[in-house]
């Protein structure tokens, strides 16, 4: 049985700690997320080309976030570097890879 297991990384868009990233305009297939290894920050890439940072866990509906523009189209993936100092986001159609400094 795998109950209350703490995983090394988590990229699931439907886990309990990411419920607050969903709004009326977000579709389930247009989001990719990951949280930092220190589990303080949740990064979300969406279909509008935005990278959003939430406090983790983001469990309240319509949780507040910082939103950043950089991609011209959907963000296909977001991942933190091993030391959480930077976030890497990869765009879909724009084929760009952006590196964000986490302060």
Protein traits:
103 residues; mainly beta; 4-stranded antiparallel sheet; 3-stranded antiparallel sheet; 0% helix; globular
Beta percentage is: 25-35%
Q: In order across it, which strands form the biggest sheet?
A: 1-2-3-4
Based on CA atoms alone, the radius of gyration comes out at 13 Å
Count helical runs.
Answer: 0
Order of helices and strands: EEEEEEE
Structural class: mainly beta
Q: What is the approximate shape?
A: globular
Sequence stretches where pLDDT stays below 50 over 5 or more residues: none
For the largest beta-sheet, the strand count, sense and barrel status come to:
4 strands, antiparallel
- What's the mean pLDDT score? 77
Task: Give the CA-CA distance, first to last residue.
Answer: 38 Å
Helix content: under 10%
Strand elements, count: 7
Please provide a written account of the structure:
This protein has 103 residues and is an all-beta fold. Helix content is 0%, strand content 35%. It has strands at 32-35, 41-45, 50-55, 66-69, 75-80, 86-91, 97-101. The strands form 2 sheets. Strands 1-2-3-4 form a 4-stranded antiparallel beta sheet, with no helix packed on it. A hairpin with a 5-residue loop joins strand 6 (86-91) and strand 7. The N and C termini lie far apart (38 Å). The model has no long low-confidence stretch (mean pLDDT 77).
